[in-house]
Specification:
By secondary structure, the protein is an alpha/beta fold. Helices cover 23% and strands 26% of the residues. The chain has one domain: Vaccinia Virus protein VP39 (Rossmann fold), CATH 3.40.50.
């Protein structure tokens, strides 16, 4: 069965380069051809030295810059900003990095699927949450259930419902079985605000 894996990587002081590499290694071994390894980890909010998590992910999958692996390819990265439920005050930022094991991409299955299956796997692309949030690489989620929403979004966006989606955390691999059509009714809707830009003279640039 086609299998993608989402792993939450701890950035606690107890985390070391060795433990992070071990987690990535175990998670990537579960990913089948053409499917994804999605790593999510808290982004630092200071200028101190921290473990280079993204670099470790890339190194353990794509390899070094001089000897890139032919088995993996880079897919994308982004950020999740979380907010408190009552006041919508900014809480934390998490980064996500995605790599894909080489092979047929998930959409290669589309011609062989029935209309009913395609409908069950449809994405609400006209929803304001999709156009203002999901379709971008900076997401905004409530702090209370951001993990569940991240799992739901990535599983719906990157895989078919009949494929296996595993959450790997704390050394444990747990299949995500609550595979339903993506609903965005409880997520935040981004509202853009225009900010004026000025010349040094004070005149409005745009």
């Amino acid at each position: 069965m086609a299998t993608s894996v989402l792993t939450f990587i701890s950035t606690a002081d107890s985390s070391t380069e060795r433990t992070v590499k071990e987690q990535i290694g175990k998670a990537k071994d579960l990913v089948t051809e053409g499917r994804y390894l999605i790593a999510v980890y808290e982004a630092p909010n200071d200028w101190e030295s921290h473990l280079p998590i993204e670099s470790l992910i890339i190194g353990e999958t794509l390899g070094g810059i001089q000897n890139r692996s032919s088995e993996w390819e880079f897919f994308g990265n982004g950020v999740v900003r979380t907010y408190t439920s009552k006041t919508l005050k900014y809480s934390k930022a998490y980064q996500w990095t995605i790599v894909r094991r080489v092979g047929d991409k998930p959409y290669a299955r589309r011609p062989s699927l029935s209309a009913a299956v395609l409908k069950r796997n449809s994405i609400p692309v006209s929803d304001k949450v999709f156009t203002r949030d999901v379709a971008n690489n900076v997401w905004h989620l409530l702090n209370d259930h951001f993990k569940e929403r991240i799992i739901t979004r990535f599983s719906a966006l990157l895989t078919w419902q009949d494929e296996e989606f595993i959450v790997f955390e704390g050394g444990k691999a747990t299949p995500f079985t609550d595979r339903k059509a993506l609903s965005l009714k409880d997520d935040l809707v981004g509202v853009p605000n225009k900010v004026p830009y000025f010349w040094d003279s004070g005149d409005v640039l745009f």
